[in-house]
Design goal:
Layout lengths: L6 H12 L2 E6 L19 H7 L3 E11 L10 H6 L2 E4 L9 H11 L4 E6 L21 H9 L6 E7 L10 H15 L8
Parallel strand pairs: 1-2, 1-4, 2-3, 4-5
Helix pairs in contact: 1-2, 5-6
Length: about 190
Amino acid sequence: GGDHTITYPILQAVAEKHGPLGLVHVDAHTDTGDKALGEKIYHGTPFRRCVEEGLLDCSRVVQIGIRGSCYDPDPYKYCRDQGFRVVLAEECWGKSLLPLMGEVRKQMGDKPMYISFDIDGLDPAYAPGTGTPEIAGLTPAQALEIIRGCKGLNIVGCDLVEVAPMYDVSGNTALLGANLLFEMLCVLPGVKTM
């Protein structure tokens, strides 16, 4: 729950204990803006603030499902300049993400990492209940491949953000969000699943 701003203080606390973290970030947006309406902290800036504070091991940051409205001719330059791997949604269309997650697993290694999942990473056909929906997103099956693909990694925390149930009269977004959170709990270290 909450918007993506909540990830910033969570990562401050987790990095204080574990040091700079790897990050699997699923989202339609990079959330690396600098300011909005003069404010440096809002749901579109958390990962820039995290970089500035040294909370992330930028060589182990992967952003998956990125797409949508842009205000810059090279909207992913900041991320790539930091060393992030940016996986655009169009690179995911119509295929399994198991090969991608094999690469992500190697990139994360055995060091501490965090999963941050914005529900708008999914296509609004599946999850319309969010404040900034963007067409042509990931499927629920791909979301499961990403989360389950993190099993066995040194996950020290996770979140699922930007669910806004009032924008979805069907309740499907909340149902999907709850199930994705359950899946994240199942891949935490030490959790036994069948």
